[in-house]
Amino acid sequence: xxxxxxxxxxxxxVIGGGAAGFFAAINAAEMHPGIKVTILEKSxxxxxxxxxxxGGRCNVTNHCxxxxxxxxxxxxxxxxxxxxxxxxxxxxxIAWFKKRGVDLKTEPDNRMFPDADSSETIIDCFMYQxxxxxxxxxxxxxxxxxxxNPKPETQNPKLEVQTTRExxxxxxxxxxxxxxxxxxxxxxxxxxxxxxxxxxxxxxxINLPGNNIKELMGLSVQNATVRVEKTKHQYTGPVLxxxxxxxxxxxxxxxxxxxxxxxxxxxNANILINWTGDLNSELVSxxxxxxxxxxxxxxxxxLYEIPKRLWAFLVDKADIPDNKPWNELSKKHLNKLAQVxxxxxxxxxxxxxxxxxxxxxxxxxxKEIDFKTMQSKIMPNLYFCGEVLxxxxxxxxxxxxxxWSTAFVAASSV
Length: 414
Ligand SMILES: Cc1cc2nc3c(=O)[nH]c(=O)nc-3n(C[C@H](O)[C@H](O)[C@H](O)COP(=O)(O)OP(=O)(O)OC[C@H]3O[C@@H](n4cnc5c(N)ncnc54)[C@H](O)[C@@H]3O)c2cc1C
Fold this sequence. Notes:
By secondary structure, the protein is of the alpha+beta class. Helices cover 31% and strands 24% of the residues. The protein has two domains: 4-200 and 360-413, FAD/NAD(P)-binding domain, CATH 3.50.50; 204-353, Translation factors (Elongation Factor Tu (Ef-tu), domain 3). The chain contains 14 helices and 22 strands. The chain is elongated. Flavin-adenine dinucleotide (FAD) binds at residues 15-21, 40-43, 48-49, 52-54, 58-59, 142-143, 176-178, 185, 188, 356-358, 386-388, 397-400, 403.
């Protein structure tokens, strides 16, 4: 680390006043006392997504301490994040906020929120740290260009950051301008020579227009497997029936991991559901056979923890009449019921955004970043962190954990 007199004239510019930008600015200022840090934000709002995140409660991270498990929650970027998390992981996030007066609590599904259940706690914490560390914030300044010192041979070239209002000289620039579904927002990055991977929606729910299953809206199955036919993608977990189709954690996970397949199919796909979780149709057939001595009506005997009304819907889909008892079930109908329970087919036509919590996959090409430092391999002294990278996580606090960890590594490397 440079000594104080060397740092005193140095200037770090952080682009974007979001989660990653604030975390990078605060850590850079704390780690390099005396250095000047400025955040440039194009809008007149700071931490806008943090404020509305997690339904206003801010799902800060996820109670997942094993790095190999943690990275499995990132459809894009999991390989690269391994070394980032080895520098700053979930325990570091918890400790960082605790040290600055914000305790986090864990909910039964492992999501972690501030004890106070309010995203304002995180915003207040950041604003206090910004003031304490004399970080300058400039609102309404959109960065249009990042230009390298005209003398490229200089060992440690300065960068010039041009905004809609001014031009700044910087020793290092941390770019945390977030993820966008409009490619225009990446123009100033492309001008530095970086490539942007294709922008594709992630985290959405499945539309089933005209399908009667929607009449069962509100019902859920805790352990169902959803897959996209003719792809390798399948996920097991809770599936929720909604008034437009299918949602729930297993569907959202599928949408994130199969984002490209869905996009390529223009959101028309055959979705297959195994309502029993992971049992195959042979096993289910043999389990159904053991019921064939019973006199009770099939429609009144829901199995595999399937809610009664959904069970009745599936029995009907297998063409079994409501008045049929188990002991009169034909082999043909038994096999059909086993098939419907394990390989139930739905025609997806379109998608719906999940509670506005959309994520766009795509962003700065990961091959162009050195993940040991988060520095650009194309323009020295330019660093990237947060959602501007081609990294995205599923819901549960993973997107913020990406922002904290990549911002921390960038801040410690400048
Ligand atoms: C409704 C909603 C709820 C969410 N809830 C959660 C949650 O609970 N947990 C979780 O982990 N994730 C959640 N996410 C995702 C999470 O909010 C993002 O992953 C995270 O905010 C990304 O942080 P960032 O700093 O990289 O980008 P952003 O928060 O998008 O910040 C980027 C900033 O840069 C500014 N900017 C852009 N271009 C320029 C430019 N050229 N010049 C200057 N400034 C610029 C933007 O105006 C913005 O303020 C949610 C997302 C949404 C939309």
